[in-house]
Amino acid sequence: MCLMFARATCAVLSTVVVVFVVACSNSPTDSTPGGASGAATGGGVATAAGTTSNVGAAGTSAGSGGSVASAGNGGAVSGGASVGGANAGANAVGGASGAPGTAGAGGASNPLLAKFSFFLTSVASIKKVSGSDQGFGGDLRFGETGDGAGLRGADKICKAIAELGMPGAGAKDWRAFLSTTAGGPAGGPVHARTRIGNGPWYDATGRVVAMTLANLTTGNRPVGADPAIRDDLPNEFGIPNHSADAPGCTGNNCPDNHQVLTGTNCIGDLYTGGGSASGQNEITSDCTGVTPPNNPPKAAYTCNDWTSKESAGSPWCGHSWPRQGSGLSWMSAARDGGCAPCVKIENGGGVSAACVGSAGGYGGFYCFEYKP
Asked: In this structure, what are the phi and psi dihedrals at residue 270, rounded to the nearest 5 degrees?
């Protein structure tokens, strides 16, 4: 009798243990996310990553819109709704360009990431990365020291801003399109055209900027560029930069942000003054039919090789969109007023202060992925 009772008791206990184990295995108390969480970028950096569902399967996530949307670069303000990540961590990049999303962990990869290889740094990202509403000015060292610090720092800024534009892009070998008076062979100049390889280059939406280096550096605008961006080069979100901060604007109603730091002449080499057929004019508004100058390097044209934020200097600029009357070339068009930081994108015309944005700009510059 006792033996039968003991066996019955053991059977009951075994059943309880099995039920308990099964229940525990299905309990949602594990704090580890069941699936990868995503973060959304509406043209900028997502302000909040998604939270996981903790259900043991692939967790869903939802991110907020781009943090730079208020400046109009890719968020809802700039013509594209921000889309949060969902279903195993997919991200989406918003913006007027309508670029498809970049995948987060567990999502499909962004087909545009492989092509993305050119952008003009936007004013919103320049402010964000510099930590200043006035930007970097002519000092682009970004924590670098020693010889060549200006170029190395500018390359780092390109990487940081590329990542803001498209998650994953910061891992690429980005180069700033800038020339310097020293740091090249035998201590000579560094020419911007020698820093970026041979092409091809595409913007963040996959549009052609230039297929070859020769096409990029011939004439005023890149030869063979997509018509939508040829005369208004796009920023890291794939948005043509003239209207990026005022969606829907036209003509003079758009921000005057044409000035882009290059320190470079009409063939992609260090700018040393002159450049017209007579070799006398300092400002060259048209890069067709010019004779490259052969003057001594002048540090004023490169803000002391991109290490100075003093008011002194005359940084040489290209124009991201051809501003009639002042310069048509994307890489060599006009000087700015000085090397101090400033953002002046209201329509005023002419050099108005001793700073990098005085004639319509904010100290932006071009970034290319190196293409050997």
From this structure: -55, 130
Report the C-alpha gap between 118 and 5 in whole angstroms.
81
| pLDDT at residue 37, rounded to an integer | 33
41 secondary structure, DSSP code: B
Q: Which of 16-30, 116-130, 151-165, 349-363 has the lowest mean pLDDT?
A: 16-30
Q: How far apart are CA 216 and CA 146, in angstroms?
A: 31
* 149: number of Cβ within 10 Å: 19
pLDDT > 90? residue 80: no
Alpha-carbon torsion, ordered 330, 332, 337, 339, to 10 deg = 90
User: What 3-state DSSP class applies to 280?
Assistant: coil
Cα angle value 170/174/179 (rounded, 5°): 145
Q: What is the pLDDT of residue 275?
A: 64
Distances 52 to 57, 85, 124, 147 between C-alpha atoms, Å: 10, 11, 30, 47
Q: Cα(330)–Cα(197) distance, rounded to whole angstroms?
A: 18
The shares of helix, strand and coil residues in the chain, as percent rounded to the nearest 5, are 25, 15, 60
| Distances in whole angstroms, Cα of residue 307 to Cα of each of 132, 322, 362 | 17, 28, 16
| Confidence category of residue 288, pLDDT binned at 50, 70, 90 | confident
Distance CA 148, CA 226 (A): 34
pLDDT tens, position by position, 167-180: 999 999 999 999 99
Which residues neighbour 220 within 8 Å (Cβ) at sequence distance 6 or greater? 286, 287, 288, 322, 328, 329, 330
Q: How many residues does the chain have?
A: 372
Query: Which amino acid appears at position 71 of this protein?
Result: A
Whether this prediction's pTM lies above 0.70 is answered by yes
CATH number for the domain whose boundaries are 113-372 = 3.10.100.10
For residue 23, is it left (φ>0), alpha (ψ between -120 and 50) or beta?
A: alpha
Helix (H) or strand (E) holding 175: strand 174-176
